[in-house]
Every structure is written in structure tokens, then in C-alpha cells.
From TrEMBL:
Species, as recorded: Mucilaginibacter terrenus
Gene behind the chain: rfaE2
Keywords, sorted A to Z: ATP-binding, Carbohydrate metabolism, Nucleotide-binding, Nucleotidyltransferase, Transferase
Gene3D superfamilies: HUPs
GO MF annotation terms: ATP binding; nucleotidyltransferase activity; phosphotransferase activity, alcohol group as acceptor
Domain Cytidyltransferase-like: 35-161
Name of this protein: D-glycero-beta-D-manno-heptose 1-phosphate adenylyltransferase
Keyword Ribonucleoprotein: no
Catalyzed chemical reaction(s): D-glycero-beta-D-manno-heptose 1-phosphate + ATP + H(+) = ADP-D-glycero-beta-D-manno-heptose + diphosphate
Pfam families assigned to the protein according to its UniProt record, in alphabetical order: CTP_transf_like
PANTHER family hit by this protein: BIFUNCTIONAL PROTEIN HLDE, FAD SYNTHASE
Length: 165
């Protein structure tokens, strides 16, 4: 990988406080910031489609990425397959992703409150009532949206197919 490409990718991956400052700058420039979060292990077409749809809702897409420790708590000791640094680098390679931060908590609520996006997005397997941070984003004048998922795609189902041989 060229040094320029590596620097471009790594620039997208940052801590929450630095990302919050970027978001403030983007908003001051009139940009609409969209936030989503997830594990994004074994990146697949469902992930790409979901994030592309989220990116289309605004000008900048930022992603909260579950840390390895939080993934283990949520999905079990055998997960994630790819560590947080690899998952973040893959997300950074997507042209429609503008910022990524890794969070340690089981939910992104505190991160969302810190970043305060204009639009909070989750998959349609969630309802607005059970989306972490939705209440706070709405109270701040933002929007909360759900996006339909691509049937037949999930990291868990891919892992199960691999195990089954």
C-alpha cells in the first residue's frame, strides 16, 4: 500500500473527541452528518449496501465501530473474526465513509451523545424506540431513520456456512 493511501485511510480512523471536533467543523460548513454503528465483521454486500444508503442521507458518514472487547461481550468469545484495527481499515477504504471511531461500550449511546449527528441510522431490524441515542438525537433536533437490510447477508450466517463446510 502506498504511503499516501495509508495516510488517507488512517486519517479517517480517530478517537471520539477528535471526531467530534471534525463533526463540529463539518456542521459549521453546512454539512449534514450521518452516524451509524456496528461490528462490521466479515464485511459483506449487506454491510456495503446499508452504509451506502446511510451515506446517501447526508454529506458525511461517520461510523462507531464496536471494539473487540464489546464484540466478545455481545457475540461470544469466538468473535470478532477480524480485530478492530482490521475492521476499521476496511471501513476506511470505503469512499463514502468519512470518519470512524472505535467504542468500548455495549451500546453507542454515550458516543452518539458526544458526536450528536444530524441523522442517526440503524437497520430496519430496530425500531426507533430501541435505537441507542435516538431520544437524544431527536431532542437535539436531529432525525432517526431505519434502513432496510439486504436479505441473506450477515456475518453470523457466513460463519455458520463456513463451519458447515
Amino acid at each position: 500500500m502506498s504511503q499516501n493511501l495509508e495516510q488517507t485511510l488512517l486519517h479517517k480512523i480517530t478517537d471520539a473527541n477528535a471526531l467530534a471536533k471534525r463533526i463540529q467543523t463539518w456542521k459549521a460548513d453546512g454539512k449534514k452528518v450521518v452516524f451509524t454503528n456496528g461490528v462490521f465483521d466479515l464485511l459483506h454486500l449487506g454491510h456495503i449496501t446499508y452504509m451506502a444508503k446511510a451515506a446517501d442521507l447526508g454529506d458525511k458518514l461517520v461510523i462507531g465501530l464496536n471494539s473487540d472487547a464489546s464484540v466478545k461481550r455481545l457475540k461470544g468469545e469466538s468473535r470478532p473474526v477480524n480485530d478492530q484495527n482490521n475492521r476499521a481499515a476496511l471501513l476506511a477504504a470505503l469512499f463514502f465513509v468519512d470518519g470512524i471511531t472505535i467504542f468500548e461500550d455495549d451500546t453507542p449511546r454515550d458516543l452518539i451523545v458526544n458526536l450528536m449527528p444530524d441523522i442517526l441510522v440503524k437497520g430496519a431490524d430496530y425500531t426507533i424506540d430501541n435505537i441507542a441515542g435516538a431520544k437524544e438525537v431527536l431532542a437535539n433536533g436531529g432525525e432517526v431513520k431505519t434502513i432496510s437490510l439486504v436479505d441473506g447477508y450477515s456475518s453470523t450466517s457466513i460463519i455458520e456456512r463456513i463451519k458447515a463446510g
